[in-house]
Amino acid sequence: MLNNKRVVVVLIAAMSFASVSYADEGTATYYTPPYVPSSCDGYQNEGVMIAAASDAIWDNKAACGRSYKVTCTGATNKGVPHPCTGQSVVVRIVDYCPPGCRGTIDLSQEAFSIIANPDAGKVNIQFHQ
């Protein structure tokens, strides 16, 4: 009976590790309206919970329409040492942030302000689809 309990405990532990999702790390910046036209949707207005993808996730336009959950993890500069609000935001990729883009994901100003103080300008993030 003891061996059966051990097997059950090992199986439960293995299943719990398998369900853990891992987030990518990067940086987020923000851009301001107007948000149209966009590289993905032209002049279609997709609201304000949107973002532009840098080359790191653009994938030759395959990122269009993907949704990402983004969470601020810390400051990138000393100007605002504690920028994070503790909240996350889900955004839809509607645009491309061209080479020279300062962040992995360029959030709309409204989305950025949910996760961080806009005065920071750029923050470290975790993100996943």
Automatic annotation (TrEMBL):
It is found in: Secreted. PROSITE patterns: EXPANSIN_EG45. Residues 26-129 form the Expansin-like EG45 domain. Residues 1-23 form the signal peptide. Pfam families: DPBB_1. It comes from the Eukaryota. Keywords: Secreted, Signal. GO terms for biological process: systemic acquired resistance. PANTHER family: EG45-LIKE DOMAIN CONTAINING PROTEIN (PTHR47295:SF10), EG45-LIKE DOMAIN CONTAINING PROTEIN 1-RELATED (PTHR47295). This is EG45-like domain containing protein. It comes from Sesamum radiatum.
